[in-house]
Amino acid sequence: MKLALLFVPVALALTLSEGASNAFVQPAMAGHEWPSDDGCLTYPAWDMVNNNCTDKKLLIVPLQATGYGGSLHAYARMKANPFGTSDTDCQAISIDTTNSEFNASAVKNTFSTTVVTLDLGTFNVSSSGTYHFECHLGRSGGAVVNVEAN
Amino acid sequence: MRTLRWSLPVIALCIAAGWLWSSTRALTPAPQAKSPPVSYEPAKRAPLSPIRVATPAPPERPRGEQIETRFSRERVDATWATATRSQLEGDLGRFATKDAGVRSVDCRASMCRVEVATATRAAGEQFAESWLRDRTFTGPAWGHYSDDAMVMYVGRDGTELIP
């Protein structure tokens, strides 16, 4: 009985740390332009990814759901161009391990000229499947700081 | 009286010995038919892995079935269903090719079921990828490919397709 009681705090600590480990934050600079890198997106170290061209550009930020399967809540930190005339949008998309199923979150956009955190809602990932964020960066200065799923 | 005085410790000793024997017997490993050869090599340890505390989850129904059941139980919100069906047909129609095209769109109160006829699975994947990337419908979406069709469920903004 005493031995069992000894395990209670240990189990509690492990459970709590397990919950915390399900938050995945990926900097935008870990992503890449799609379909090809035409030099429009700048990837400064430790900073947001900016679109320096005069048309919208697609940024893909990949993540892997190692050992986790279930519902995730997606967020993205981004801003429109400095004039507020070209919006930036993001969505999260998961793909299962057999590539036969996908699940996309809602697409959310902003015309804000300062960085805002947008709640993209929930989406489902399969255990060991992959997911990624797709963001269209507003022309002439749209940017993404990072993306998050927890 | 003298016999009784000696018999009490003896009985107590017997009970204690019996309890000790029964408790150690449970810990003794069962004899094996053949004992393994003795190895003089240093024991190889398995790499340590982090301890994970998890409760066994009940077997989960496939997500497709869960969504299908939920969709079939939904009532129809005529205003939303009509407007969303029209929007989806236009949005999805932009990505139709000779190998993939919308077969049907059925909307209820918070979800729509979209069936896309595809010549090949690759055509279905291409259709979904293109649509997801440049869609005007902004709600959540779930889809499953098979060889000749792709079924998608899309949700009203704020809807959780898979709880």
Summarize the structure.
The complex is a heterodimer of chains A (150) and B (163). With 150 residues, chain A is mainly beta.
How would you describe this structure to a colleague?
- Chain A has one helix and twelve strands.
- With 150 residues, chain A is mostly beta strands.
- Chain A has one domain: Galactose-binding domain-like (Jelly Rolls, Sandwich), CATH 2.60.120.260.
- In chain A, strands 1, 3, 4, 6, 10 and 12 form a six-stranded antiparallel β-sheet that branches. In chain A, strands 2, 5, 7, 8, 9 and 11 form a six-stranded antiparallel β-sheet that branches.
- In chain A, strand 3 (41-42) and strand 4 (49-51) form a beta hairpin.
- Chain A is globular and about 40 Å long.
- Chain B is an alpha+beta fold.
- Chain B has a domain at 63-155: 2-Layer Sandwich (Gyrase A, domain 2).
- Helices cover 41% and strands 17% of the residues of chain B.
- In chain B, strands 1-2-4-3 form a four-stranded antiparallel β-sheet, with helices on both faces.
- In chain B, a hairpin with a 3-residue loop joins strand 1 (100-107) and strand 2.
- Residues 25-35 of chain B have low confidence and may be disordered.
- Strand 8 of chain A pairs antiparallel with strand 3 of chain B, so a sheet runs across the interface.
